[in-house]
Amino acid sequence: MRPYQPGGTVGDEPAGKLSANESYLGPGPEVIAAIEAVAPEVHVYRTSRHLRAAISSQLGVDEERVIVTNGSDEVCFLVGVAMIRSGDEVVMSDPPYRINEIVSVLNGAELVRVPVVDGGHDLDALAAAAQDARLVWLPTPHNPTGVALSPAQLEGFLELVPGECWVVLDEAYRAFLPLDQRPDARSLLDRYPNLLIQRTFSKGAGLAGARVGFAVGDADAIARLDSYRAPFNVNAIALAAAQASIEHPAWEEYAISETCRQRGEFEAFLGGLEIEFWPSQTNFVSFRPRSADRAIEALGSRGISARSGSDLGCPGWVRVTIGSAPRMRLVRESLIEMEEMT
Amino acid sequence: MRVRAALMDADLRVRIGERELGDPGPGSVLVKVDWAGVCGSDLHAIETGEWISEWPATLGHEVSGRVEALGEGVELALGTPVVIDSRIPCMECEGCATDPDRCTRVTVLGEACPGGFATHVLVPARSAHPVPANLQGEDAVLAAPLAVAFHAISRAPSSPSSVLVLGHGPLGALLHIELRRRFPQVEVSVAEPAPRRAELATALGARCVAEASSLSAAAFDLVIDAAGYRDALGDAVRTVRDGGTILLVALAGEPAGVGLKAVVQRRITIAGINAFIDELPEAIMALSAEPWRYRPVITHAIGLEELPDAIDKEAIRATAVKVLVHP
Description:
The complex is a heterodimer of chains A (342) and B (327).
Chain A: H1 29-38, H2 49-59, E1 66-69, H3 72-83, E2 89-94, H4 98-106, E3 110-115, H5 123-130, E4 135-139, H6 151-160, E5 166-170, H7 185-191, E6 195-200, E7 213-217, H8 219-228, H9 236-247, H10 250-272, E8 276-277, E9 284-288, H11 292-301, E10 307-308, E11 318-321, H12 325-341
Parallel strand pairs in A: 2-3, 2-4, 4-5, 5-6
Antiparallel strand pairs in A: 1-7, 6-7, 8-9, 9-11, 10-11
Chain B: E1 2-8, E2 14-20, E3 28-38, H1 40-48, E4 62-70, E5 81-84, E6 87-88, H2 94-98, E7 107-108, E8 120-124, E9 128-130, H3 137-140, H4 143-154, E10 162-166, H5 170-182, E11 187-191, H6 195-203, E12 207-209, E13 220-225, H7 232-239, E14 240-248, H8 260-265, E15 269-272, H9 280-289, H10 291-294, E16 298-303, H11 307-310, H12 313-319, E17 322-326
Parallel strand pairs in B: 10-11, 10-13, 11-12, 13-14, 14-15, 16-17
Antiparallel strand pairs in B: 1-2, 3-4, 3-8, 3-17, 4-5, 5-9, 6-7
């Protein structure tokens, strides 16, 4: 199994790193203050009790239906060990979110891959594959395409999946969806006990380096995941940061709004150059230039690292994280220059 | 040397063309512009033609770049990343005799000579301040406006507990950010009618209102006018507490209709802040240490060719905070 490759930088230029879907504005001032405030207390073990309570209160669910994890990726690994048995069929879109693929293989699953259609999940095909499967990985908006399901599409899909098959809904990029396009988690969880929802503080809240996420689902399912969780799996700094980001949402809302504005401008730019792209509901855009290799090279010449689609299961495509306005200007200049030369 | 530049003619129209810049003479350096910031005073000059001494003018006085050529006697290394101190001292007046920072006849890059909305600028070597290698050009370009904010805050009371900032454009936002850095417990209020700018103020933790008229009288230790609208000083006098301080950093174009009796009776201190004195190195170090803190001010970045269509004062106010130009 090929190990996960994180997005890199060009040389030592972190400012040009547009390869890992990090928030270019980062966490807000209150979150940074919370991190600084907890620093003198890191000699003390911390549990996620307070953060779990804050999350459950925000979602309107009982605390026993929430597990706080070391990044949302820990949810994937816990699901793998707790729910996947060797030989189980596990369904995912192709290209998949790489962690889903890795976790499934590590736990001996038989992978059932369903090609995306226009960057989106092929729900009918996924539902058909789910009939004999143990689990469906369902990131929406999807990574690496950025395409999202509508709440109605999601609900329609859940109706078609048998109750014995887990659906793991990864909402890492939920915050970038318009409000009326965000699924009603509580309602869905009440109606579909086979549904597990995972979220992260990495993207919208800008806490990728802190590593904190969570899952919410049926209390018994959460208890199963919890039984495999390491004690003190989330560190004190990450807990304080996540708690502060819940208590002070204004910065996150602004950062997401700015990111979405810039994403819209970038997609309009791609359209103007007649470069094919998947319409994104995230903080990244995947597009198919005339030559992905040359695009990566042109971006690199300006200190911009993008992600090659070859690494993400979509050869010929390039994924660029939405960065600061100056960095996006350099991205546009790179692509104009490349298109003029080809 | 001919360079590509934004050219503003006497009819105040801006176009893109070429201009002769000359080679660096003794004591001068040629800087290849990396990023240039659009300042409120650029927009004022485009609107009025004020301060321009040579047509066509190439505006732009907030500049980061790299040293490309040296005049005689200059010891900077080629390729050194720099930001430009836009003030050009006369080197002849009494102020210059003691310290060029105290020049009484200072002129400004972009107004008295071609500025940074161009591929290159020619400046005195003493105006080119090297920046640390870790500081990106798009962050370094904030050094000059941040130095203005530093200078303004140096005139503020030592530890204000409540501050009102009128206007949350680039300078108002930098003032807001810097006030929070220096005085973490300070309560900052902002009066800003433009939604985008107001959203940033709120995100940074301020209580934000559209109009200062909705705020209580005599409520703030310090009021900073970073907007310069017609009755800004009147709003400042009304909202500052007795014994408080008003700092004027915006260039208000209209006479202020303020009753001075109230200023005297209420012991209000009013100070005008024009640019900065010696705060530029301090601003460079602050940006180098914590670029993330100031970066949110930058909301838009355009190419030089886009500049003539982009420098619409009202459009920028409505939709942007700091706009950068990449020649």
